[in-house]
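re: that chain from earlier
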Amino acid sequence: MFLFTLKKLTNIILTNSSINIILHNTYYIITHFHYILSIKTIFTIFTNFTH
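^ sequence. v structure.
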């Protein structure tokens, strides 16, 4: 749940176009991208176990 919440918070920040331009190609964007991938991976693993 922590990663999901963190992803949503970073999405809210990135929706502001001026902030998005400033943060482009920074570690913030890289971290946001990795959190999204990790959430999808964990969700896929859990759904495969339950299915």
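The two ends are 20 Å apart (CA to CA).
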